[in-house]
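Q: My labmate handed me this sequence with no annotations at all. I'd like to see what the chain might look like in three dimensions before we decide whether it's worth expressing. Could you predict it?
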Amino acid sequence: MINIKIFILIIFIITLIKIIKSDVSIKYYNEPLPENFVANSNGDCKVNYSLFVKSDVPIKNISTIPNVSNTVLGELNTFKTTYSFETISNLATPNFTLTVIVTDNDLKEFRDSRIVYCLKLNDFGPTTQYLLQLKKNNSNLFSNGVIKRSTKTGRITDGASIVVEYISSNLPPLLKSLLYLSLFETSIKHLGNKKTSKLYEISFFTETTNYYFMDFIVSFEWGQLTIEPLPSKTFQIKSMIPFYKFSSVQKSASVVGFFNLEFNDSLEIKIIRISSVNTYVFPVINDGLNVKYLCYFNENGSAYASLSYNYQTSPIFSTNINIETENYSQGKQMLLMFQDDLMELTPKGFTAVLSGVPVLPQYPITLTYPNGFQRQLWFNQYPFSLKNGYRKDSIDTYEMVFTAKLSKYSNGQYIFNYNSTNSFVFVATPQSDIPIDNNPPEIIMVQSFNVGRMKLDIQMTITDDISGFSAFVCLDTNEIIFDYKNLNSGGTINNGVYSFIYDYGFTPVCQKSAFLDFAGNSLVQNQPFLDLIVSNGSKVSYFSIDLPINRPKTLSDFDQFYFAYNNINLTNSRFYNTLFFKFKDDDNDPDYVIKFRLAISDGYPNLNDYYSVWDSGLQLYRVEFSLPPNLLIMDILYYIYLGLDYETQYSTSHFQSWVNPSSAILSVYSNIGDIMPPLVQNIDWRIDGSNYAIQRNLMCTFFIEDQFNGFDIGELTIMGSTDFIPWNFLFSSNNNNPISSSYNITIPIPPNSRTQTYYVTHMKLVDKNGIFSEYNINKPQVFPIVDPLVKVTNRAFIVLGDDDNPISRTLPKLVDFIVSQNSIDVGGSDLSRTVTFSIKTTEEVGIRSNVKPTIYLGDTYLNYLSVPVLSDGEFDSSTNITTFTVSTTIPYGFGFPEGILLNVYGIQSSHCTFQGYSSLDLKNKNFIYSINTPTFSVTTKLISYSPISTKGGLLTIFGRSIDAVKNPSYLIVMNSPSNGPERFENVPYSLISSSTVIITAYPSNSSYLVYLLDSSNNNTIDSIRIYPSYNWDSNPIKPSVTPSATPSATPSATPSATPSATPSATPTITPTITPTITPTITPTITPTITPTITPTVTPTITPTVTPNPPQKCGGNPQCGGESKGKCVDGVGCVCISPWIGSECQSRIIEIPPPLINPTNPNHNLTLNSTGTNEFTLVSLVSLVSLRELDFKNKLVRSFRFDKWKLISNTSTYSNYITDIIDPTNNNTICSVNVSTIWYQTLTDIEFAGQKLTMNPSTLKYNINITAFPFSNVLNTLQLVMSATAKSTSPQDDQCSSNEFGNTTSNDNSNYLQLSVNEHSLYGRFIKRGIVDNNIRSIGNEVLKDLSSENSYYVSQSYIGINIPFYKEFIQLDPDFSVLLDQTSASSICNDRGNKLSKGAIIGIVIGCAAFTVIAVTLLVLLLKNKYFFRSMELKVIKMVSKKY
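A: Here is what I predict for the chain of 1444 residues:
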């Protein structure tokens, strides 16, 4: 009865609280921009607000104070609604408080207030209201590099800058151009918001290119601030090599020359500031203190370039430079025509024709759908759309023809555009037998799952009555967020659930989006898609997704920020480093992520991104990254992007200026620094004959240099101007001098071919440290990528041919086109989606069998999938037919539900004419032109994963319909160098959502496979290969002293590894002409998870792991003598292998490996000794139980290990698993996975960040326990193990003993030694384990409360491994071996009359006396301080209860 009354009372209290305090939340979306608060010409400010309101009680009304206009109130008497309105104010009342009042049906009010401003441009109020200030004690200017200005455009690209804070009582509006300076122009960039202030970077520029900043005052309407000068040092350049301009700067080239400066010391190199006009200048080589600077120019037209440094009165150089973009169109325009011959087809389609000069067009065709969504199609990829390439009336001509496929439900106006002058409008109407679909998709439900690290798995239930849901698109960017291929198992495109991963940390929320169906209907959202407002007739639905982390950070939020190592020597070696940081006020969410972009310098071409992880042991975020070898003497340039801040890019200078001026700088140096990429010194073209009627060869020799790092690999593409065949070459410096060498390439010229020019269209050269130069003929050269051909003038070569031969007007023909299957299930297995194509071609003088055609598969969104033929064609001389064959697997879901159109392009004749066939051409010639895709069976697939380190841990895997497997299990297969494949079955896992699962990964230095199995039939559902990222440990302690080894003089010699001679033979490179075509359209699914270089949480050493206390050196002789061990002060006896023990008096004995136990992981280590003293020692190691203990070490509950399952085994390896079952409900509490490894030879391993030596004949256990449901957060776990050493032939003179203590071999472990006579079982229990992916202290103890069997021939002990409270998993690593002792055991002896030995009696007496003294002392202390201990106990309990 009492229990019922208490229950009713609790329900009443909960209900009362809910009635009294209803929860209401207001979310503003489409927030006004800062410029909305600036008055118009009439002095008015009109600001629009949009609200999304949620309440626990139905909403009755929404109002505002003061009154507002243009109000639009959503549905009332619901738990969710919207409200939008407009505020109007003027300069007469520059700001007021706007209050939104939400009233629920219980007449309770909820109010939300904010300040609304109305400001005049350059008029931001009185000093008392707004304040512009610098950070205290840190007001220096900084420079992100050289000052760069364009005289042609007036664009300022860099300058001296400073970070300021703009403060008011409420969050102020945007700071614009408000500074009044006579000497400078200014540029203001918003960096982020605090609660009542904004941070800005203000940059200052002057027309005087060599101006050096001194003290100056920044004044504005309500005050001023003083800015200190840049740090300066007056110095004189030691020497200078004048500017060298490359002999002939090419059109479209970028680098125009270089100059050298020699400095007196390394500091001068880092602080020199070079001013330039129209030119980027950056250092590329430092040979000691001699620095080479490269000058980069990439603005079209003729301009004056001038460079100077610091107080230099005359420029380093000044010159006129003329750079123009290549005009490949020769002044002619491509023409766009459309044919509607395919309109009678189902599915529908167009054919578009581009015709004009023989140059691939550089503009895309844009298709605009009736809903405004746009798709683009590019034509600059050979051989897509090329048709009828031949010589006509002495002019090389061709057409570009493609087919655009539309849905059969298409209804509305479609617009094709090419350039700004060519367009075509078409109104599509479904055929009479196709139902009209005028209704957009409908959103039924939206839910999200937090998958960690600022990622959400968003699931939407969507219906569409006729044509089916097609895609969810962002209209801001014309990108597809997800589409029908994201459908979950069990659904259809007419009614299904769709899942996609959203990286909300670094992907801006789309502000305007649309749900599309295949008919072109759209449900448009004019607010961020995280807040959906769906109106279907009179029904309005509201869906809101709350982000787990919703507040972005700013510079002012950082508390600590430093690098583990600094002033780093990178000479010929890569360095692994770590950035540590944390935020103020303990605002450190473990899931929060920043992106760290390692830019190195302005002129460095390789940008690498790294991501932060939370280290729970250090209570810091960490970013692990690597620095490449041979960087210059420099301070590293890096950029940081804060999660949820989608706009601001913070640089090194921002952190130096605002966070910490010293620890934000990362300095490096090299004796010889080299970031200059390889360059081509010259090109030699030649043709080996002038007889057009026979086979000829075009040969080309490239001379490549790289002064210090050395050239490594290169890519080269040469294309003909008439046949458009790309000849692709890959080459390397193997067997060549990487410093300077030549490389030959050869292109075959067929008989009777036409005249054409061969262009270098692409070249990329990479040095041995990854520094690269790159050129693309159709792309502008973008800073800082250097053109590898900047020094050469002859990038093209004309090969004359037989243009008057009549065969130059004949075209190759398609004889037959065979498709292995014309209808497929695009959701089926890879094998079922595999299609084989056979292309049969002919031409009167022959087909070029080594130039392969390409098949293009098209769908309804202008996606074209290229399927290049990879093998040479087979020629049949009897029929003059050449056959090409290729197989491909149709991508999952591609072309559903209305089929795939086929196109064949790139059929080449032996005299350089070519032919292609669009879908329309194939149809007109009665060939197969499409593949039907009526079925889309959604299948389970493992797609990607989050990064995982080589030390293992929790691995997040993303996929499709993972939850569709009803009885899943996970298997990991690793390849062990010593033991071959290792299988880890029944891997612990946690299913987060239908798209996300987290499993426990094991340590591995190489890739491994994860299998998803159906345990009911053991079938493999899918697998994914995991590539763990290298894990390195960095010192988390900020170094107090940095190395001072920065070079002060030029080294006397260059590295000795530089080859001294050029090989006598120049390599000849065989071309590969496989078309390098990739789909040129936007992917149908925007990638959301990438397995790139994002680091994961890895086990880290915490400061709480303390070493063993120092021990005295014992033994007679001490430590067994010089041959067995030595005494180390503060440590104890350090033994020499194979000796072991506290006094080095025991020796490892090699014994046979134990037999694998098929029922449990208990192992027997058996020693059989022969001779005069035959003796057999049987040692048993077993796992007994798992016990939960409270904070007083009292037993809470215990679970014995009863049923084990042997998963896998070899002669030296075994793996077992068992589930801990709750006897009250038969539910699984946790799982224990135990593997044993037998080490036959001396082996070094690593566990928990510590090197361990495995002696011969050692049995090592690896124990993993999954999440345990603790009864209280103060509780701990205890794993109980039993060890027994037993003689199987008891004798009268036998004795036994056991010993437990600390090891002395620097392995921070406990040892247990169980002895019978001169033989013993030795167990080592490491005092550390991996707990929740962090390295933590582990305690070990001998358990006296468990009854053990001890006699003169048996020694047994129970060991408790004490595990702290954890949430996810723990990993332990004890090991055991058998020893031969120099002295015999003497604790328990037989001695016939059961008399104790003299040694035993002495030991007992001393032990009893010591125990008595200790017990009395402890009793006195306890009685004296009992109230203190009790109060401390209560305080701890209260603190923990509050926290949890």
